Please model this.
Amino acid sequence: MENQQQDFAILDNNSTAEEFFLPHGHGKRIIAISVNDTQNSDDVVEWALANIIDKESDLVVLMNVRVTNRTADFAAIGGYAEDPLSIEREKECSHNTVKKYGVKMRQDGYNVKAYSLVGDAGPEIVKKATELNVDHLILGTRSLSGLKKIFLGSVSEYCSKHCKCAITIVKTH
Model:
């Protein structure tokens, strides 16, 4: 398993769809799943694999977005001042998150790519989904309270308004 984790490439904001077609291409659909390091994502991925994804032909694109500017989050969730160490830790956490799902899916026979993106989650997911011509976007919902939703926004709501592909929002407990 260690060797498979080292071979699992994680792409960034500047990567394009050309990576999908080299060296071996993919089947009929590109299915993107937004993941983070919560139980919610475990449930979303399980649901997507059981209900949407065709192992034999679909390409699964995992996306994790890490925020670079915490000043907007400070008042809402008690953010912190950024330093190079925290930025590197967030990058490592993001990479570990997509590796966790990607390596397991690859072991199970799925064709999978992973993106660790930087920026505001909603716009970055929509931008990458558009660039990659994603056929279906699957994401979870955090069930934020009204006040938190005002300060933090709803990624699923943003994506549902701005994405041009089919979207499934998986509500988990």
Observations:
- Residues 77 and 148 are 8 Å apart (CA to CA).
- The domain at 2-170 is CATH 3.40.50.620 (Rossmann fold).
- The helical segments are 2-7, 18-21, 39-51, 71-77, 84-107, 121-131, 146-152, 155-162.
